[in-house]
Amino acid sequence: MRLTSRVRVLAATLVAPLVLFAAGCAASPPGAADPAAPVKIGWLSTLSGVYQAPGTDMRDGFQLYLDLHGGKLGGRTIDLIVADEGDGPATARPAAERLVKQQKVTVLAGVLNAASFLAVNELTNQAKIPLVGSNARPTRLKDVTWVWTTSWLNQHAGQAIAPYIKAHVDGPVWAIGPDNQGGYDQVGGFVDKFVSLGGRLANSSGKPTWTPFPNTTNFLPYLTQIAASEAKAVYAFFAGANAIDFVKQYRQSDAKNLPLYGAYLTEGTVLNAQAEAAEGILNVLNYSPDLDNPANRSFVAAWSARHDRTPTVFAADSYDAAAVLDRALASIAGQVTPSAINEAIGKLGQIDSPRGSWQFNATTHTPIQRWYLRKVARDGSKWSNVVVEDLATLS
């Protein structure tokens, strides 16, 4: 990875320490009078554990934007301090506390896990610094004064695909996901919308099935239940190592002939590991590398020049987090303070993005954006999520 910005890595509590791979001289505290002083940005994503792959893509997407802009955002040198979020709040909160209280960052960005987001948001609200999230955004977040999200509200993916599933599946659907905040939101969004359209769950309890997180590696007992039910299809939300295990075991189970729908399920490096087991899976996301627009062509070319893996939604949404901060910082004429950045973000209009143009909803601080239905198919020697059609526009 080529680093042109000043990047420092901060180890998270209870996670194996990360190597300090680039150090810069000390930056001035937030609000310093010197307009040339580096702006401290804290980056937090999962760099170990179940979600290591998507968390790494998030970091690399943000870093790519910095690289392409000479290590600067809004013309200002960036002191980027990277910390490992780990698998949840127990590691994410201490890492965030060090970024905010010890490193005194002006803004915090990233965060993959929804439960981690709740804990980190509590901290940034208290400190009154912006949190620019580029993945997890729990549904039950109430105060968004200092929160801006370049990805989505967690229930949106399920809500976007539910009408399609209702129209194409003749019968009940089994819903399943991890027993964590992200699972509750992602699967819950699908269930609420699906049921409101007259759909019915095949789950024996009439409620979604939750698998213990992060320790579930054997999904066969759940798949046996699904095969024995009246389910005509399955909707699942899993990511990282869980997604690999679930999809591979699905194709080896008695449920293998049931249509499988999902969010995240085949995104990123997990698809390489799933290979032919993922063929035909229909899934929903707000980005695909085959979207044909100038911003995406440039993004994919720049990513491919630096990495030997396909660009993902995790990378694209984090790339956009850097773009948001770039434009916000460029609009600040005076001191760069947390409140100045927060105010500047609120005044941004359309964002030219690899996913297509979008803008923040003034109330929720989440993107007003298009969602896409994608299908796993072979693209030459590789497997790819190919866009099938546009779905809903949600905010």
Description of the molecule:
This protein is α/β, with parallel strands linked by helices. The chain folds into two domains: 6-152 and 292-360, Rossmann fold (3-Layer(aba) Sandwich); 156-285 and 372-394, Rossmann fold, CATH 3.40.50. It is 35% helix and 21% strand. Strand 10 (233-237), helix 7 and strand 11 form a beta-alpha-beta unit. The longest helix is centred in the C-terminal third of the chain and has 18 residues, at 313-330. The radius of gyration is 20 Å and the shape is globular. Residues 1-5 and 11-33 have low confidence and may be disordered.
Q: What are the key terms here?
A:
alpha/beta, 15 strands, 7-stranded mixed beta sheet, 8-stranded mixed beta sheet, 2 domains, single chain, Rossmann fold, 395 residues, 11 helices
**Helix share of residues?**
25-40%
Q: Strand-residue fraction?
A: 15-25%
Supply the CATH architecture of the largest domain.
3-Layer(aba) Sandwich
Spatial gap, N to C terminus: 34 Å
Number of contiguous helices: 11
Give the overall average pLDDT.
Answer: 91
Q: Write the CATH fold name of the largest domain.
A: Rossmann fold
Structural class: alpha/beta
Instruction: Choose one word for the global shape.
Output: globular
CATH class division of the largest domain: Alpha Beta
What's the short version?
Helices cover 35% and strands 21% of the residues. The protein has 395 residues and is of the alpha/beta class.
